[in-house]
Amino acid sequence: MVGGYSYALSSFNRATQARRQPGSAYKPFVYAAALEGDFTPASIVLDAPISFPGGPGGRAWTPQNYSRQFYGPQTLRRGLELSRNVMTVRLAQAVGMKNVVDLSKKMGVVDDMSPNLAMSLGAGETTPYRITAAYAAFVNGGRRVDPYLIELAQDRNGQTIHRADRRQCRDCGRGFSGQESPRLQDRGTQVIDPITAYQMTSMLEGVIQRGTGARARSLGPWVGGKTGTTNEYRSAWFVGFSADIVVGVFVGFDDNRSLGGGEAGASTAVPIFIDFMEDALKERPARPFVKPKNAIFRTVNGIEEAFRPGTERQLREEAPPPAQPEGPQNYYDVIRREQEVRSQTPTPTAPPPVAPPPPKKEPAEDLSGLY
């Protein structure tokens, strides 16, 4: 743990004491709440303008994507990979902010939070310590494990006076005669479904492979995480992980002033994460995340997705799109072709089916903006 760059100048521990808005680093908990319900990584949410009336005399709230553009129907996976603000708000509205807040409290991100839709974009406050510990539940199969700073303490005689891990190992004292090795009981409290946890690790791995965390792609596969940036570039975040290590990076001033234009999580916090993980992965190389039992796997647009039994039926497999010379270029193509299949036998008086216009092209600089 690093709480600052100089204890002599300040004993304030930013890791455990600095309460800051996490920005888009909070979004995974909105998506996890959705996956705990009827949503899947392949569910479609509309990325289109939306506005909410203000209170008496107040202004309406109209959330915007950083690019000030909208991209039409998108999957949950794509929305998280590219940190779509409007999609996240729509998703939180569909799931219910009370459910999002309840899940956030169970996972330890916050003790309490107003069930306001603006909170879905990370307008609440937490500490780097708490949000990093909450991400660990995704890697731990949905179990919340509270971190500790001191693992073991012994006196001068070798007697243990403190041990953080108090799990009991039954049968550890038995003689070995070829039987299966005893295993320690899993620590922690189950707070989300193991399939939800795996879906989140897979989607957050996509953030690095295809999204806002692309700078960390040099670390290789089986590494995931999420960028975060707050208004006026006051705080930059990246919380990332492998199967064995979870790391939270926060960059900001004690007086909460701006870091400067363009100092976003992708450009400020991600490089710190990369430097740390390059050394950490030498000792504990990245490995595939453990697939949960009972999950059903389907390939959607070239990506293997995990589904809770029954939710995979949401995929429309009974009417495959007609063969094309090339595969779909994006998720929007899949939706458009599905509409074409449904309209391929129009009535004699019906006009010919018209495919919807393609979405606006995403600017390349979109990946280094406010997330």
Concise description?
This protein has 371 residues and is of the alpha+beta class. Helix content is 27%, strand content 13%.
3D architecture notes:
With 371 residues, the protein is of the alpha+beta class. Helices cover 27% and strands 13% of the residues. It is built from nine helices and eleven strands. The protein has helices at 14-17, 27-35, 76-81, 85-95, 97-107, 128-139, 194-210, 265-283, 331-342, and strands at residues 44-47, 72-75, 143-144, 152-154, 160-163, 189-190, 224-229, 235-241, 246-252, 296-300, 303-307. The longest helix is centred in the C-terminal third of the chain and has 19 residues, at 265-283.
Sheet with the most strands?
3 strands, antiparallel
Report the portion of residues in β strands. Answer: 5-15%
- From the coordinates shown, what is the CATH architecture of one domain? 3-Layer(aba) Sandwich
Q: Count all strands and give the number.
A: 11
- CATH topology label of one domain: Beta-lactamase
Element-level helix/strand string:
HHEEHHHHEEEEHEEEHEEH
Walk across the major sheet and give the strand order. Answer: 7-8-9
CATH class of one domain: Alpha Beta
Number of discrete helical segments: 9
- On the 0 to 100 scale, the average pLDDT is 85
